[in-house]
Amino acid sequence: MTISRELAEFATGYGAGSFAVGRNRIINGAMEIDQRNAGASVTPNNTYTLDRWLYENTQTSKVTIQQNAGSVTPPAGFTNYLGVTSTSAYSVLTGDTFLITQRIEGYNVADLAWGTANAQTITLSFWARSSLTGTFGGSLGNVNASRSYPFSYTIASANTWEYKTVTVAGDTSGTWNTGNGRGLSITFGLGSGSTYSGTAGAWASANLVQPTGSVPVVGTNGATLYITGVQLEEGTVATPFERRQYGQELALCQRYFQRLTASGRYYTSDGNWGLQYPFKVTMRANPTYTNIGGGNNSLPGTNQGIISGSTQEAGIQWTGSVGTYYAYALGATFNAEL
Fold first, then answer.
1. pLDDT value, residue 303
2. Which domains are delineated in the chain?
């Protein structure tokens, strides 16, 4: 078989890892999916925001997060972004940290062989926009927070989208999960004290969120940081953002979180009745669930929780009155996040 000169040059220039199908290890990097909040602004507290993007904090009520916060025009080729807005001018303490992170499943980074002599280099690329300028930071880290690599990036112009790339040599030390647990975390810092800050551009045996001296977004009231087009791929060169169909991206998100409604009519000869929820995709692990609005949310009796469940479906049981017909629909969320 003969390949064209153009294809050969592309493969040589971008590396075998980057040339592979499915090169982006980030899910929802274009910030399209927001199952939990449907675009509404939230004040999170150690909770997920847009799909796959977790906000972690040591002090509450310091930021709001919203898909397309501020309604600015995204970079060309994108329609959505994750927007962080500071709600006060907070002085970060030594043990404080504020961050946005995505925990990547071990199966999706196993081929990088981190923790071995064959550890592969990766390149992170993304678009960022802030009302502040200066040196910002983030990090890569492992499952038990014993290895981390702080990285820095500079925003030169306020309120302007800028494209950033960071290349990191794979870690040959530490424990890196290759199963269905947390394999690798990519973090964007919003402000951290000295406990969680360190030297940029080097692997450390510590839980570091960002380089020392990084701009603290939470330190300025009303400050913003917007991010989109996040891609993490094998190789030394950032390739164009890998675009997946919306349905594909949604299905990837639903491995970790699903929002479903089930309905039915039941006669409770023994006082028990329930609803069955078949999942749209197989989940990463047996999930937990929470009742939400949608359908009849004021249900009689006592919720017994998941009485039969797997990664493919869940049955929720209620105990009500003996010999009663129930006709109900109930919305629920199912969570198998890392």
1. 79
2. 5-252 (2.60.120.260), 255-335 (2.60.40)
